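Sample entry (247 residues):
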Amino acid sequence: MSDIQFVKMDEGGVNARILSKETKADFRRIEAASLKMRARFTSAEGKRFFVRLFSTLQLNTHFISVIARTRLDHDDVAKVEAALRAKMDAVNENLNKAIDGAEALFKSHGVTSVATYDTVPLEVDVGVMSSAGRRYLEVLGKLDQLMPLLQTLEIHEVITAQAVDIQRASLKRQVRDVANGARNFAIGLRRRMNPLGNRDSFDTGDVSAVPENEEAADVQAVVTLGGDQGSAKVSQLAENGDASLDQ
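Predicted structure, serialized as tokens:
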């Protein structure tokens, strides 16, 4: 009797569907070395965000840190990097607080086991090209770690379904905002490098020339503001990103 299954279980079909919708990132022109790391995701949110965001973030941060430096002032590029790093650190801290808070509720309510997924985990070998890529992979891992904790607390009625939905949506938005911010700044830097749009600024070495398009203006805002204000600009820009990833 123990071998009888009352429900059909996933045997990898979920992962296949997720991977089939992945937009293939083109790494053929990337000559950077990468550190091979094993990544494992069990939650729906962790899997989908990894597939949709990680590779493109790596391409965008590589462009910002490596390609843009061949044409733009290093200090200006460093300001963009610092703003993105501050944003990533803030999200990481918020995820840590959420995990600590969930574990405290486990302890105070006598919850001893965590809900598990019946779908097959998504396990892949990842080539991490930069510290930004490593940091973002850690952020995705913490998001994946938090999701079953929240589900467990909901099952035990420690927190309401509404509270779980609000917290989940907020953290997902923050994680997505980092990738959208990297994309927006890579676009802006690429257009600042356009010899037709920025010929005078490159000839004079002046990268503070007034940008001629919205994305370049976004980059200029961060370069000008720097620090916490630059990080706030990253958040503002990311809110205008691809909302389809909330699904």
